Input
Amino acid sequence: MPFAIAVVGPAGSGKSTVARGLARRATAVYLDKDTLAGPLVEAALAANGDESSDRESNEFYRTRVMPAEYAALFATAGDNLRLGHDVVLDAPFAAYLNDAGFFVRSTAESGWPTSRLFVLRVLAPEAVIKARLVERGLVRDAVKLGDWDAFWSAWGNTAVEWTGVEVLDVLNDDGGADIDAVLEQLRNKEGDSR
Output
């Protein structure tokens, strides 16, 4: 039975680094929401006359574009799971983490086969995350850094409230995450099957 792991965490937590490392070591399909849908999101926002740097406060993005991004991510994951491939989903999922039924509902809507479901929540200390955002210098991070206290209080240690999926935490501080330990932990758990 294939597994699907959603790797979540705030911007700067190292979520993508952990997700890529996990996919590489597990020889799983790596699906990054921004790679999969990013150019289409940019085009949609431009066509609507919107800037792409501040998505969190953009109602058009949140209500129309973002749901389509995640639908595409889950559909692509479903295609790979039906082929018997393990998948690693790299996306923040921030707007959906408190929706208990989101993950299982999304897998059902995308026709996922029975799979072992996990969520890997990537955590890092506040100072490390802030330094990473400053260092990478992305335009989309300027809003977060501009009102750091608001960003950190909202997203710094967000709980994952999803049901039907096992949540595991991994610390990704300056020393990096221990991907081998994460894989061992996943292998020792059954996960929820949906």
